[in-house]
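It is worth pausing here to work through a concrete case rather than discussing structure prediction in the abstract. The textbook approach is simple: state the sequence, then state the predicted structure, then interpret. We follow exactly that order.
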Amino acid sequence: MSDGTVRCWGSNTAGQTAGSSPTTRIAGLSGVAEISAGSDHTCARMLDGTVRCWGGNAGGQSAGSSPTTPIAGLNGVAEISATNVHTCARTADSTVRCWGYNASGETGGSSPTMPIPGL
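Step two, the predicted structure:
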């Protein structure tokens, strides 16, 4: 929303809407610059460059964060992209960090605190 809050709706089988709806914002979440939704998790890039993810975390795609808790050690994020079971962030220094399910090399050997080597 233009006030920096987020509203999500649809399937909430893994908590990906965080209890919100088209008319109800996610409690405790404000200052959002960008959102990206995977199939069972949602992530928000905050105005301060941190990221918060919530919902499913079976593959680690939420990195243990929540709508009110940022992902530890991930700062300076300029862009995010959530997919089915992993999430990636491009930081202001142009490095890319991905986390979550990695059965086919989706994270490129990176993590929220370590960029993809050689990229």
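Step three, interpretation. Residues 64 and 71 are 7 Å apart (CA to CA). The chain has no helices and six strands.
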